[in-house]
């Protein structure tokens, strides 16, 4: 029997946040909620997540976002708005996961890159923006020398970084890094 993959929130009480046409939504309890309909408990959790990340607070202040709703929407947009079939927030509102969010400003066009989007949660740690760049290059078939040259890092540094990525992801081989990059929609 073939089982259909359903997004979190469609068949449970977790939340899968996503952005469409500049609006934030959540799949939850079998339906879709617009940001304005998010329960207060979810909004409070997002506020606590932001408060726990000093770099994110500093970045939101730098962007002059004062209104709590604007701050939440920007944080969600940069850290949790990719529809990736992985729950962003657990049903109990205790666990959350940041994810890779494709952004046209990535790579130098965002004044708060690396501060607001500090990295991506992985099973055994947080993937840095450099880790994500390397994973993208591996997924796209770059050889180690090409990656080292493009990122201006020594081959030994790349080897160590790849090993650290494998540990963070809980995988054994370079091909598994490429697979994880595909699942995360890195391109």
Please explain how this structure is put together:
With 187 residues, the protein is of the alpha+beta class. It folds into two domains: 16-106, no CATH class; 122-183, Arc Repressor Mutant, subunit A (Orthogonal Bundle). Helix content is 41%, strand content 11%. It has seven helices and five strands; from the N terminus they run βββαααββαααα. The strands form two sheets. Strands 1-2-3 form a three-stranded antiparallel β-sheet. The protein has a two-stranded antiparallel sheet with strand order 4-5.
Order of strands, main sheet, comes to: 1-2-3
Rough outline: globular
Share in β-strands: 5-15%
Order of helices and strands: EEEHHHEEHHHH
| Cα Rg | 17 Å
Helix fraction, binned, reads 40-55%
Number of helices: 7
Largest sheet data: 3 strands, antiparallel
Average pLDDT confidence is 90
Termini, distance in Å?
Answer: 32 Å
- Structural category is alpha+beta
Number of strands: 5
Low-confidence regions? none
Task: Kindly list the characteristics that best describe this protein.
187 residues, alpha+beta, Arc Repressor Mutant, subunit A, 2 domains, 3-stranded antiparallel sheet, two-stranded antiparallel sheet, 7 helices, 5 strands, 41% helix
In terms of topology, how is this protein built?
Blueprint: E1 16-20, E2 23-28, E3 31-34, H1 40-51, H2 54-62, H3 68-79, E4 120-122, E5 125-127, H4 129-139, H5 144-151, H6 155-169, H7 174-183
Antiparallel strand pairs: 1-2, 2-3, 4-5
């Amino acid at each position: 029997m073939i089982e259909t993959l359903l997004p979190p929130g469609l068949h449970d009480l977790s939340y899968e946040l996503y952005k469409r046409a500049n609006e934030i939504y959540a799949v939850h309890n079998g339906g879709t909620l617009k940001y304005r309909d998010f329960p207060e408990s979810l909004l409070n959790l997002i506020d606590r997540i932001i408060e726990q990340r000093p770099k994110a607070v500093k970045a939101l202040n730098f962007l002059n976002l004062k209104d709590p709703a604007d701050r939440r929407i920007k944080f969600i947009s940069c850290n949790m708005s990719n529809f990736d079939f992985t729950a962003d927030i657990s049903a109990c509102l205790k666990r959350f996961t940041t994810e890779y969010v494709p952004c046209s400003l990535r790579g130098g066009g965002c004044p708060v890159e690396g501060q607001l989007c500090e990295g991506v949660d992985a099973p055994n740690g947080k993937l840095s923006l450099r880790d994500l760049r390397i994973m993208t290059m591996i997924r796209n078939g770059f050889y180690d020398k090409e990656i080292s040259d493009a990122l201006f890092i020594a081959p030994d540094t790349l080897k160590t970084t790849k090993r650290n990525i494998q540990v963070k992801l809980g995988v054994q081989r370079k091909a598994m890094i490429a697979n994880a990059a595909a699942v995360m929609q890195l391109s």
